[in-house]
Amino acid sequence: MMNIYVKVGIAIAIAFSLGSQVMAAEGGNPKKGKHLYKKECKACHSANSEGKELTPMTKTMSQWDRFFTRDMHKAKPAVFEALSEKDLKDIQQFLYDHAADSDQPATCG
Ligand code: HEC
User: Fold this and answer.
1) Which atom of ligand 1 is nearest the CA belonging to 88?
2) Which range is the signal sequence, renumbered to this chain (predicted)?
């Protein structure tokens, strides 16, 4: 028989693993995301830097969602590992809101 602590522990573990999978672009703070994007991403993603030049318009809304939920910056996993889930969600929201097929596509940021 499993004791109550084991059951509660399993329930929490399941809740956490579900929570991190369902990370569609909603509920993030795009203003904070824009600030974080400039701070955390632009250094490597501007002209003449290590990564390709990137703007929100580089991808479509669904491509950004896929990037943040599946790819997770596999070219350099340490980049995403260094950021909190909340910060990543905010950055995802900013990029999604201004994606190529969004209402307000943006090359700035
Ligand atoms: C330490 C440098 C560095 C930082 C910081 C960094 N990246 Fe990257 N990123 C790279 C490199 C290198 C690649 C692989 C080469 C490429 O595709 O540009 C890459 C690849 C990517 C790609 C794939 C490009 C494509 O066309 O599919 C995306 C999207 C991306 N990064 C987004 C981000 C975001 C968003 C951030 C901020 C959270 C970020 N990167 C921060 C270096 C960095």
Assistant:
1) 38
2) 1-24
Residue 48 burial (10 A CB sphere; 0-12, 13-18, 19+): exposed
The answer, yes or no, to whether any atom of ligand 1 lies below 6 A from the CB of 45, is yes
Q: Which fold has domain 29-109?
A: Cytochrome Bc1 Complex; Chain D, domain 2 (1.10.760)
Query: Are the beta carbons of 109 and 34 closer than 8 angstroms?
Result: yes
Give the number of the atom of ligand 1 that is nearest the alpha carbon of residue 67. 29
Q: Which long-range contacts (CB under 8 A, 24 or more apart) does 38-44 make?
A: 38/109, 40/79, 40/83, 40/87, 40/91, 41/91, 42/109, 44/79
| Stated pTM of the model | 0.82
Q: Indicate if the pLDDT at residue 16 is higher than 70.
A: no
